């Protein structure tokens, strides 16, 4: 069947972006590539809503996370990591690997970081130099409210705030400068409608000050070197040239459409999916409504349904590709990704496929139930 990729990354890539990948190779230290890299960087700053430096690395998002640790801290530095799922855990693991002294705030699956808990933890640990938060925790479908959390971290203006926005930047508003976020990490293959291969990291003035004293080892991910090379429109090492071509096109598309319009579409996509899943009655949302993500929705299937079997069936019968659970949620949930180049029609297809699959498993009377509710939500959008 036709392919409907509805996982939270890699996400579908529009045809005009894909065609950029077919361009012939150029000298990555020549004028043509310099122009593409510089333009892409400037467009990225608009999406990050920042005047800070933004550096494009040839790596997956995790490479960007590693760079965010290795460039700004020193052995034994006390840091705080908010853990709402697999990706918060990953930040903690990277910090541990680099010998930082970590404290954690751990959230139940489906819940985000409570501002009161953050405030209390920071009061009790005034020596904390950096706070790591996941903007959108992809494994649990939780979006942390940074408009609430960032000012708490910045009650001490000298403390670094590091945010993983891999599965949100471009889809959910993240005003980097307004919130004084020092380091924001994202990647090409999620809301930015580009194939995998690039990580992007924004770096504030304060973060560069930390960089001068930071003694952790770094080589490939040396951001100071990346900044120096960018001045000449180049990168220290051979970049994923084709993905940079694609990124430029994708950013032009997004910004032409308008960032705010993008946020609005994702809000509707998220709401339609949640309302539809609730309307089915036999499935349950994992994430608490307060933190429910507009880019990914984890769903708890009916008790006797194995989510991975259900996904396989939906994939083979209808071509709709959904994601499984990760970490402790493996085998317990499935996830619907609705970020990037995803439109209301794609959601209607996915909900319809889920309805029919559950009907065929014996859950009668579901046909059209979720689709109808989703259509009602989308009627407000159009
Ligand atoms: N953080 C978040 C929130 C993510 O969703 C992901 C990817 N699923 C990552 C980090 C890691 O990115 P990558 O797989 O590109 O290394």
CATH class group of the largest domain: Alpha Beta
Radius of gyration: 21 Å
Broad shape? globular
Tell how many strands the DSSP assignment holds: 15
Largest sheet: 7 strands, mixed
CATH superfamily of the largest domain: Type I PLP-dependent aspartate aminotransferase-like (Major domain)
Number of domains: 2
Describe the structure.
This protein is an alpha/beta fold and 382 residues long. The protein has 2 domains: 4-8 and 258-381, Aspartate Aminotransferase, domain 1 (Alpha-Beta Complex); 15-256, Type I PLP-dependent aspartate aminotransferase-like (Major domain) (Aspartate Aminotransferase, domain 2), CATH 3.40.640.10. Helix content is 42%, strand content 16%. Helix 5 runs parallel beside helix 6 (146-153), helix 10 (259-280) runs parallel beside helix 12 and helix 12 (344-360) packs antiparallel against helix 13. The longest helix has 22 residues, at 259-280. It starts with a strand and ends with a helix. It binds 4'-deoxy-4'-aminopyridoxal-5'-phosphate.
């Amino acid at each position: 069947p036709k392919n409907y990729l509805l996982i939270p990354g890699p996400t579908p890539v529009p045809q005009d972006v894909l065609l950029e990948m077919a361009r012939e190779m150029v000298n990555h230290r020549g004028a043509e590539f310099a122009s593409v890299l510089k333009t892409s960087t400037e467009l990225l700053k608009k999406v990050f809503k920042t005047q800070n430096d933004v550096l494009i690395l040839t790596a997956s998002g995790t490479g960007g996370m590693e760079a965010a640790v290795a460039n700004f801290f020193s052995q034994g530095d006390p840091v705080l990591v908010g853990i709402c799922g697999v990706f918060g855990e990953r930040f903690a693991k990277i910090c541990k690997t680099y010998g930082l002294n970590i404290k954690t705030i751990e959230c139940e699956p489906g819940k985000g970081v409570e501002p009161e808990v953050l405030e209390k933890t920071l009061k009790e640990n005034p020596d904390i130099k950096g706070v790591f938060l996941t903007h959108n925790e992809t494994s649990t479908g939780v979006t942390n409210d940074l408009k609430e959390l960032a000012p708490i971290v910045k009650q001490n203006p000298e403390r670094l705030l590091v945010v993983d926005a891999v599965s949100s930047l471009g889809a959910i508003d993240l005003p980097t400068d307004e919130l004084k976020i020092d380091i924001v990490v994202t990647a090409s293959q999620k809301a930015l409608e580009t194939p995998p291969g690039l990580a992007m990291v924004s770096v504030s003035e304060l973060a560069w000050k930390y960089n001068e004293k930071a003694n952790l080892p770094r080589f490939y991910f040396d951001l100071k070197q990346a900044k120096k090379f960018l001045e000449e429109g180049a990168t220290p090492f051979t970049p994923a040239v084709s993905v940079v071509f694609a990124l430029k096109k994708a950013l032009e598309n997004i910004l032409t459409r308008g960032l705010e319009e993008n946020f609005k579409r994702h809000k509707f996509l998220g709401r339609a999916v949640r309302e539809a899943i609730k309307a089915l009655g036999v499935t349950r949302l994992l994430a608490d409504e307060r933190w429910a993500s507009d880019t990914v929705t984890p769903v708890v299937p009916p008790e006797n349904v194995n989510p991975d079997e259900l996904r396989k069936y939906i994939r083979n019968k209808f071509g709709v590709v959904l994601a499984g659970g990760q970490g402790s949620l493996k085998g317990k949930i499935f996830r619907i990704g609705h970020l990037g180049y995803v439109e209301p029609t794609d959601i209607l297809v996915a909900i319809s496929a889920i309805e029919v699959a559950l009907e065929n498993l014996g859950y009668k009377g579901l046909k059209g139930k979720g689709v109808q509710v989703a259509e009602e939500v989308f009627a407000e959008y159009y």
